[in-house]
Design brief:
The protein is built from six helices and four strands; from the N terminus they run αβαβααβααβ. By secondary structure, it is of the alpha/beta class. It has a domain of 93 residues.
């Protein structure tokens, strides 16, 4: 069943503008739970998501990294599956390798959903997200949504 928005024109316009920009873009959606942030991103970007991961509440770092490998394999559909990364540093390097292998003229879209569950204390997720953005993504044709 296809659902549509009532309102949210401003938010949709921001996401569309990021997609149409000639610059790399990072967009942060904030708001309380269950108000439709994920639905908004998926609706605006529809089949444009090159990589999407949803953090899992109350699981170990190992389980989050297993989730990362599962999502990367779902998007990449490699002949040999990606292994579970040993750290977020390893995970982001795997993501870079995957994205660099995409031959696209259009802007890539990466979506990290439920960021607080990915970026738990001592996980180092935010440090490596920052490194991913500053060392690689900021020079690419990409939208990163958090």
């Amino acid at each position: 069943m296809h659902q549509s928005f009532i309102g949210r024109q401003e938010e949709q316009a921001i996401l569309q503008k990021a997609l149409q920009s000639r610059e790399p873009e990072m967009v942060a959606l904030i708001g309380r739970r269950r108000v439709g942030k994920t639905f908004l991103v998926r609706s605006v970007y529809e089949n444009r998501l090159d990589f999407e991961i949803t953090g899992i509440q109350d699981v170990s770092l190992r389980e989050q990294l297993e989730n990362f490998a599962t999502r990367l394999n779902a998007h990449a559909k490699p002949l040999l599956p990606f292994r579970r990364p040993v750290s977020w540093a390893d995970a982001f390097q795997m993501l870079i390798t995957f994205l660099e292998g995409r031959e696209k003229q259009e802007k890539m879209v990466v979506f990290f959903d439920e960021l607080p569950w990915l970026a738990t204390r001592k996980s180092n997720f935010l440090k490596w997200l920052g490194y991913f953005w500053n060392s690689w993504a900021a020079q690419k044709n990409i939208v990163v949504v958090i």
